[in-house]
Design brief:
Number of strands: 2
Order of helices and strands: HHEEHHHHHHHHHHH
Low-confidence stretches: none
Shape: globular
Oligomer: single chain
Largest sheet: 2 strands, antiparallel
Number of helices: 13
Helix content: over 70%
Distance between the termini: 20 Å
Strand content: under 5%
Strand order of the largest sheet: 1-2
Length: about 260
């Protein structure tokens, strides 16, 4: 890679990533609240926890599910479009699009224009993954959700576990150290950005209110309410869920082995 083009790619990605469609959407909608004012009610307690996320999910808490989906799509595009240009038009023989992917995530999570207070980047990560490997973008979220629901027994694990599986995926999919390294960077940046939530959860665990906080979190947005309903239905299966989970995951693995023949 040319060092100058590398730096230019990183700068372009960071500046694009710093655009906060969640904040723009709230202003255009004339919302009476700002994302920084959002709080999660701790169920059964006279206590609230400040929401320190500034992305599509937070915007959906104010504007509703449809607006959250629209903002999520825009976040996907701010990663996907420059990656398409760099991968298929400007530098098809190089991997500058991976630099774009990481730098857009950095900008989204720590935006230059908004005091370095951003989201967590699920949409950004997914939008970039579609351009890199549409098979991974299709399979990994499904595997993560099924793992969380049927194996780990909590949708919270399913929500993030597909990111943990991503470097492993690229290891078996490509055996290419570049893809593995960039996917590891993406995973590290995401989990590093979740430190406020981790501190909040640790606080409520110490106070014996973690379950109440989690219930409040599940009820705080359309996305989480949907996940809660999914988890409830799976929990009703009892121990049968483990058998179903193993069968489904095994089927997906076999399906992946066949799809793995498709090039990135």
């Amino acid at each position: 890679m040319d060092p100058l083009i590398f730096i230019i790619s990183a700068l372009i990605g960071y500046l694009l990533g710093s655009i906060s469609f969640a904040r723009i959407g709230l202003r255009l909608a004339g919302a009476d609240r700002d994302i920084s004012e959002l709080e999660i009610q701790v169920e059964g307690a006279d206590d609230t926890a400040l929401v320190e996320i500034f992305g599509a999910n937070a915007a959906s808490m104010i504007l509703g599910a449809r607006a959250g989906i629209a903002i999520g799509i825009l976040d996907m595009l701010k990663a996907a479009l420059p990656m398409i240009i760099f991968r298929f038009i400007l530098y098809p023989a190089e991997q500058y699009y991976l630099v774009i992917w990481v730098s857009v995530l950095v900008g989204h999570n720590w935006p230059l224009y908004f005091g370095f207070k951003g989201g967590r980047g699920f949409s950004v990560i997914f939008g970039g993954l579609v351009i890199i490997d549409w098979v991974a973008a299709t399979m990994l979220p499904i595997i993560g959700i099924l793992f969380g629901l049927f194996v780990a027994g909590t949708m919270m694990i399913g929500y993030v576990s597909w990111l943990l599986f991503m470097p492993i995926w690229f290891w078996f999919r490509t055996f290419d150290l570049t893809f593995i390294t960039y996917s590891l960077l993406i995973m590290i940046l995401f989990f590093y950005s979740t430190r406020p939530e981790i501190r909040t959860m640790a606080k409520y665990r110490r106070e014996g209110k973690l379950e109440e906080y989690m219930q409040g979190l599940y009820n705080s947005s359309p996305r989480w309410r949907g996940m809660k309903r999914m988890q409830k239905r799976v929990d009703e299966l009892g121990k049968k869920r483990y058998v179903i989970g193993i069968i489904v995951l095994a089927s997906i693995t076999l399906f992946f082995i066949n799809l793995n023949l498709l090039p990135i």
